[in-house]
Design brief:
Layout: H1 3-13, H2 18-21, H3 30-54, H4 58-79, H5 85-107, H6 112-126, H7 137-146, H8 150-158, H9 166-181, H10 185-204, H11 209-229, H12 233-251
Helix pairs in contact: 1-3, 1-4, 3-4, 3-5, 4-6, 5-6, 5-10, 8-11, 9-10, 10-12, 11-12
Length: 261
């Protein structure tokens, strides 16, 4: 098999089963899951690096790799039943952000950064409303311990509260224990992981961002904290879902346009 074939085969096979891949996208499981993904990717990255250093038009080669990757992702998305596409796309996006991009960055080849740039451009063409950013493994792994409560963290920061304040720690513990144990709890948490950064970004662009976060605190976060402390866990979950749905309707722009009918 030639380097080009090895590279393209590796690129097009990375997202064959995103649902299975992100089963390990959890605190405690992510390090091992990422390491397995990275080791499987190394032969393809070795081939890409050799091609990058030897071909006459390396940028064209990288763009072909990126196109092969995105074309396969779009094909899998289109093959998914319409009623399941939103969840599938969340899983796809999370797999790209949590595994594909950090694994390429982890390789640290001369081609790595440029390959990601081509992949981001091609992904944006295929899914115009997506907003996937590249982050390294260390940043993501640390995020499981510190920064994954995006909306609540942002609201607390606007109130001058520390990242490790009692309120945030209580909400994180609620997420990792009660929510994670519920039926479809992992799906709900993964959706939050995927959409919350975009929600926060769009809120922060509003001229009245502080007022928005004050309302979120008063209407959702503070009542949730009280309900947790009173043992009213299910009521907190209902309120949490209501908050996410409202913020998604108001501020979230991610899912690709899908024609129906």
């Amino acid at each position: 098999m030639t380097d080009y074939q090895t590279a393209m085969e590796g690129m097009t096979s990375m997202l064959e089963d995103p649902e299975r891949l992100i089963q390990s996208f959890k605190r405690g499981l992510y390090p091992d899951g990422f390491q397995k993904f990275y080791l499987n990717l190394v032969p393809a990255m070795d081939a890409i690096e050799r091609l990058y250093l030897s071909v006459g038009e390396p940028d064209t080669m990288l763009d072909n790799m990126a196109k092969g990757f995105v074309d396969r992702a779009k094909e899998l998305y289109d093959l998914t039943p319409r009623r399941k596409r939103d969840v599938f796309f969340i899983n796809q996006s999370l797999a790209v952000a949590g595994y594909v991009f950090p694994a390429i960055l982890q390789y640290q080849g001369e081609s790595s950064g440029k390959l990601i740039e081509h992949m981001q451009l091609r992904w944006k063409e295929a899914f115009p409303k997506s907003n996937i950013k590249a982050a390294g493994y260390d940043e993501i792994e640390k995020g499981f311990h510190r920064k994954w409560c995006y909306i609540t963290t942002a609201a607390c920061q606007f109130r001058g509260m520390a990242d490790d304040c009692d309120e945030l720690n209580l909400l994180r513990d609620y997420r990792d224990t009660y929510m994670a144990s519920k039926k479809d709890g992992d799906v709900l948490i993964r959706e939050y992981y995927d959409i919350a950064p975009s929600i926060v970004k769009h809120i922060n662009m509003q001229p009245d961002a502080r007022s928005v976060y004050d309302r979120i605190w008063e209407q959702y976060i503070d009542p949730c904290i009280r309900k947790i402390r009173e043992g009213r866990m299910e009521e907190c979950l209902d309120l949490y879902v209501q908050m996410v749905l409202e913020m998604k309707d108001r501020y979230f722009h991610l899912y690709p346009h899908v024609k129906t009918g």
